[in-house]
Write a structure and sequence with these properties.
The protein is built from 19 helices and twelve strands. The protein folds into two domains: about 270 residues, no CATH class; about 70 residues, no CATH class. Helix 14 crosses helix 15 and helix 15 crosses helix 17. It is elongated. Strands 3-4-5-6-1-8-12-11-10-9 form a ten-stranded antiparallel beta sheet. It has a two-stranded antiparallel sheet with strand order 2-7. It is an alpha+beta fold.
């Protein structure tokens, strides 16, 4: 649904409290010129030790055209982390009052008092929409990301850069205005801060890694995230999707908007690329991935052997030509074993549904049910 939001409010809509006697850190000056000042307020050690999630606060003072000082506050936070202490679990529209209550409380604990009305109506400078998709039937996030990497995302979305990172477990295409991030959410939980996509992983979120992976069949969670990083981009996309421009926090906290934004990016990405992704002549690497799908417990050496066998049988006169080439090196018993391996591999590959992973993602977008780790771990 929704993840990170950046709000902006005039300084006049907030009351600042000096809570240094209670261990709350003050505002630190980060930059100063004759016409500009920037301050930051980070969570105190007390807040960090509490295990609760706190927003990041930035204060600005700028001189306007009349050379008068104007002040504003930027509030940046992950909405699900505010409620669940992780952003794997997803929120629903009915939880908006709870979000406002908790946000107001955390701000007050930081020495910033803002009314609920002003929070609901706060200007949105940026918003990140996301969806976690559980992959089934042997499909892995790495496999799906490898397939999607075949698409020219830069051309599709007018993005300047695309990166295929973390050993094929994340795909990141971006500009300053917006970005599309697709990654293995479970694998991201175990990475260090420098390599992870999510740079603010709490202890609560990191603790999910073990139960999600230490199962007879580990859970695969593909995360699809659209980051609208500038207000101009938020407005242009909202206008294109027939939503009102200049949204407030209450406006963007909307399942309908989240679904429409994510589906717009997904549909734009997939349109015209189905033939590319589901071609009938896969590369050797594609074939290796498909064989792994048919038997997740197969050892790497065996996978490579079977992939080479299938590729050899697809060329020339197939089995007959291969047997002729190997006639002086294998006896009948060995050849029989090779033939059995070829038949078993071919049968398993024919049972694969090449579009199934795509159908799983599309189904998750269509149903758009809130994702919860608790229901998965209880299975």
């Amino acid at each position: 649904m929704i993840d990170t939001v950046i709000l902006s409010l005039p300084r006049s809509k907030a009351i600042m409290l000096d809570m240094s006697n209670y261990g709350v850190s003050g505002w630190d000056l980060q930059a100063r010129t004759r016409a500009y000042e920037k301050f930051v307020k980070n969570p105190s050690k007390r807040d960090t030790d509490s295990g609760r999630y706190f927003p990041r606060l930035t204060g600005f003072k700028r001189k306007n055209g009349k050379l008068e000082w104007e002040s504003s506050i930027k509030i940046e936070f992950s909405v699900p982390k505010l409620i669940y202490r992780n952003n794997v679990d997803e929120l629903t529209n009915s939880q908006f009052p709870e979000v406002i209550d908790v946000l107001q409380n955390r701000l007050e604990r930081s020495g910033v008092v803002i009314s609920k009305k002003n929070l609901r109506e706060a200007e949105v400078r940026a918003v990140h929409y996301s969806k976690n998709v559980e992959l089934k039937n042997g499909y892995t996030s790495q496999y799906v990301i490898g397939e999607l990497n075949k698409i020219n995302l830069n051309m599709r979305f007018d993005l300047t850069r695309a990166r295929y990172m973390n050993d094929g477990q994340s795909l990141y295409a971006y500009t300053q205005a917006h970005s599309l991030v697709i990654y293995d959410k479970v694998a991201d939980l175990k990475r260090g801060k420098k390599r992870s996509i999510d740079k603010e992983q709490s202890l609560e979120q990191l603790s999910l890694f073990v139960p999600l992976t230490k199962r007879p069949e580990p859970i695969e969670i593909l995360r699809f995230e659209v980051r609208l990083s500038q207000k101009q981009k938020v407005n242009s996309l909202f206008k294109k999707l027939n939503f009102a421009e200049n949204p407030t926090l209450e406006n963007v906290f909307d399942t309908k908007k989240s679904k429409k934004v994510l589906c717009y990016y997904w549909d734009t990405m997939m349109t015209g690329n189905m033939g590319l992704l589901f071609a009938h002549a896969p590369t050797s690497k594609d074939l290796i991935k498909q064989i792994l799908l048919t038997n997740k417990g197969m050892k790497a050496k065996e996978v490579i052997y079977r992939a080479g066998l299938v590729l050899a049988l697809r060329e020339g006169n197939g089995m007959r030509e291969l047997r002729t080439a190997l006639s002086k090196r294998v006896n009948d018993r060995t050849w029989y074993r090779i033939a059995v391996d070829a038949r078993e591999t071919g049968t398993a590959l024919t049972k694969l549904k090449p579009r199934e992973w795509c159908e799983q993602v599309q189904s998750a977008f269509k149903d758009y049910q809130a994702f919860h780790t608790g229901s998965l771990l209880c299975k």
